[in-house]
Write a structure and sequence with these properties.
- The complex is a heterodimer of chains A (276) and B (532).
- Chain A has 276 residues and is mainly α.
- In chain A, 76% of the residues lie in helices and 0% in strands.
- Chain A has 10 helices and no strands.
- Chain A is elongated.
- Chain A starts with 12 loop residues before the first helix and ends with a helix.
- With 532 residues, chain B is of the alpha+beta class.
- In chain B, helix 2 crosses helix 3.
- Chain B is rod-shaped.
- The C terminus of chain B is likely disordered.
- The chains are: A mainly alpha (276), B alpha+beta (532).
- Chains A and B meet through helix 4, helix 5, helix 6, helix 9 and helix 10 of A and helix 1 and helix 2 of B.
Amino acid sequence: MQRSNIFDYKHYFYFKIAVVVILLGFAAYLLFEPTVGHYGGSWLGYVLGTLSAIMVLWMAWYGVRKRRYRGTGATQGWLSAHIYLGTALTVLVTLHSGFHFGLNIHTLAYGLLLVVVVSGFFGNYTYMIYPRQMTENMGEDNLDGLLLRIAEADKMARQIALIMPDNINNAVARACSETSIGIGLLEQLRGYQPNCPTAMAVEQLTLMGKDLSTELRKPYRELYSIMVRRQSLVKRVRQDLMYRSRLGFWLYFHVPFTIALLVAMMAHIIAVFFYW
Amino acid sequence: MIHCLLIKVSNNKRGLPVRSYRTLTADELTIGRGVECTISLPDPRIALHHAVIKRLENGQPHLMAVNGELEVDGAMQQSIALTHGKKIMVGPYQLKVEPAPPDVSLSISLELTHHLPDDFQDLKSRTHEPLQNALSFKRRLSMWMAALIALIFLVLPLAQSLIPQLHASMAQLPFGFDRVWSPGHISNAHLHFGSQCANCHQTLTHKVSDQACMTCHRDTAPHITDSKLQQLAFNPTKRLSYGVRCAECHLEHKAPHPLARQDNATCVKCHGNIKATNPKTKLPNIHDFDLDHPDFKLTFSIGPTAKDIERIPQNETARLVEKSGLKFPHSQHFGKVQGPDGVWDVRELTCTNCHHPEGKEMRFKPVSYNQDCQACHASQLVVGPAKAAIHLPHGTEQNVINTLKVQAPKQLAHYAEILKSDGCSYCHEINETKKDDVLPWRIMPLRISQDWFSKAHFNHASHRTQQCQSCHQVEQSDSSADVAMPDRKSCLRCHSGNNPKPKRIASGCMSCHDFHSSHTAQAIEPVAVPAK
């Protein structure tokens, strides 16, 4: 069993550091207020800004560090620091801004940072919640196992449907040959597919079973239960796909916006010292 | 009746075609998935009753669709004549009319050409990977955003600054590319040229220089009237590399905050240790009004011109005597007083009966006899017996003596003596004159101090919610020599120093003082700015 995770790494060491950093930032902010109000160009503003810039670079370096197998400290510790100090960094940057926002490079850099941090929070959330739910969803199975079971159900359903009337046979055949899993990004993230052929087939079978001759009743019931089982299997596969896509989706924002943030931060610093 | 030879073509284990033969005899041959069909094809893609082969009236065997679909060369058909060599798709099966042997009327072969796909592989091909192309998407998004931000927020503004041609052509536009670098709102006064950054940020990587400010503010006076002191305080070599620039205290991009700094930090920088700036000064160190501000100095007028003043600290109480040239007891002119018409004429006097506020800052008009005194006091002095009374209007001593000379030339000296001891001297101090003077005596010139705190500014309007007496205690004053100006302690009842205190208002240096009276300092000569 894993004794510690990224959150309580070394008895919340980085959490404590983050709290201290935030408190120090707030204390300095309250104690040293320039008469014109807080702004990035006061001496406190420069201190907070420099500290924040270094922290941003360090946070971004985590992306490089985690791809290396060797390096100082455990990657788990790096991630723990990445999460907690990234949160503290957001507070420092907000204090650095002095709550002045406008249509300019400075606020753009701030906005990009917020996108990065918020997407990071979402990523955190997914890693806290989804692995457990994935295990609950898949149980002992894996994806190929589930697909095999669906294929098996298909074969059985088709066999029974051969003796059924054409509409039932067609519905089953369509469900078997046309059900697909995770077509688009939206379907993957939702874990649900509108107009799923399997779900439609089950719905149609419910109606079609009413006027069957007595000798077809028994095979029909068997067919129906197979199709319902197929539907639940398909749903589980879609859920699994949903969890896996959600676990990765936040990186669509976290990584590109980090790159954008680094460029914007550079422009911000250059702008400030060019027009000093 | 149809005699049909049915040839079923299938593949053996090696994949070679195997033909099995069967003869069918029936009125019509039904083809379908159902077991009751003459030709039963167990495939989900075949309808239960798919098609039927029967002879038409002309005896030609035809294949006719029932519930399924028939396809010849990609076209759907309902009824197809079964002539030699015809190929028809019945669902996944290919039906071909073969050459018939002599004992049958029709020979057809059926071959499953479209096999059902493998279920698992088929399903797997329809199961997509989560977040396909995530890596390339993230790469492209990163590159696009980075490129766009670099272009708009770095390359274009830099190009405008560094390429002179671009800079010149952009100067005509309302905004430059570098507008996106502006860190905050520009003050209202500078807004009309502030959208072009280069107007103030003239040299890249250098702070805004005083020259940039002087482009417009050419006639601004040096902030310290004493030029030597100006040198001492603003010495460029003393602080960092730039010295004290205009922009150190006049902070731009901070609107709606006022442009000039309002705090004490800049004042205390020198005045907290004033000897360091000017070793010869007699001024004490000051950090805070509440803490170490010295007692006020009152400005007394001692001569005819505005420059004839003497400033006396309020703690030197013995010297605080106003020599105004008037005899005026405030105590007799305050509250309920007796009017000129006898004991029943009771009048209520307040400060504003005589002191009339004037202007936005509520300074006071000089008290005038005609306007303020005559409501109670007579407009003329009367001398001489009742029969030949001489009426002397309020005016200069020259006028008074002239009137006497005209009306009672013989008694001039007598009447002049009476006025000296009782008439004019009732209110005025009288000066003896020298022997060769044309007048026997003169009224002492009036020296009423108008601006007691000449080095500070005081706004009565800001204090109009207070009673006059709470600062100026004149009810008990019997003499016009008394000075009724409030001292620092009485200010401190309501005001504190730099920081607010309970029930006291924070008051910095700039609350009362101008920065070295910069507004009254002499303007420097306009400097011609060399054309670029």
